[in-house]
Structure formats: structure tokens, C-alpha cells
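Q: Got a minute? One more chain.
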Amino acid sequence: MGPEAQPDMSRIQEEMHHASQPAAGPLKITFGKKSAEWTAEKLAALPHQSISVYNELAKENQTFAGVALSDLLAPLGVPAKPHGKDFKLYAVAVGADGYEAVYSIGEISPDVHDGTVLVADAMDGKVLQTAGPLQLVITGDKRPARWVRNLVAVRVMTAE
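A: Always. Here it is, folded:
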């Protein structure tokens, strides 16, 4: 078997990791001593935006609808227009299965970055099913490795 015939093990591992997801509870977002909790119903009441991305694993374009993560962080005191020491802030997104991905404040802030980090509750016009009720999706990444299915927590912390 030549190298071109070998399976892409990183893709297989990623697909297996996300294959069986435990049920997700509400999304809890924390920053210091402040926190907020979001259910799919509560999030659905907020103004939504849509993003279109190419999902390398599914080999198709997908359109997600949801709320920008920056909009959920601002009421907790996370700077909307970071500068200086604010760039030490980062967010850890956690799925119900324990999967975690890190996003810098610069990636989250539309004031700094062209991409969008979205807390999605719908894909292609339908409520999320296997990846939901909430999924964190980011534009600009080449593959969905940092998308977090069944999102249950976002913790904003400061790098030392």
C-alpha cells in the first residue's frame, strides 16, 4: 500500500471523536467572577447572523446561523475592541464530550479579525441535530478541527 492509498488518520480520529456525542446541557459562559447561561431557546431570541463555510470533512458548503460569540462575551465585560494587555485573553470552548478548542480574543473580536466565531443553533436552515443544540463554528480555518459540537461551556481566561 503506497502512501497515497493510506487513510488520513487525523481525519478518521476526528470523525470518531465526534461520532457519539453525549447530550448537551445549557451553554455556560464565564469571565472572571461573571457568568451567563444560554439555552437554545434563549439564544434563539437574540438577533442572528449567517455564515457560509466549506466543511472539509463533509466536502460541502454549509450555512450556519447563530449569534457571534463576541456578542455573548461583551455583557460579561470582555472587551469588544481589545488593545494592549487585552490580547492576553483567550477562550476555551468545551463540548459535552470534553472536546476543547482555544480561540484568542483577537480571533473572536470583529474589531480585530475578519473571521467570525459563531455560536450556531442552525445549519442550512434547520435546527442543529447531531452537532447541537449549539455548535461553535469559525470562519477562516481550513478544516473544522476547532468547531465544537454540543457546546456546553466557554471560559475566558488570561494567559500568564
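A: Residues 3-158 form a domain with the Sulfite Oxidase; Chain A, domain 2 fold (CATH 3.90.420.10).
Q: Perfect, thanks.
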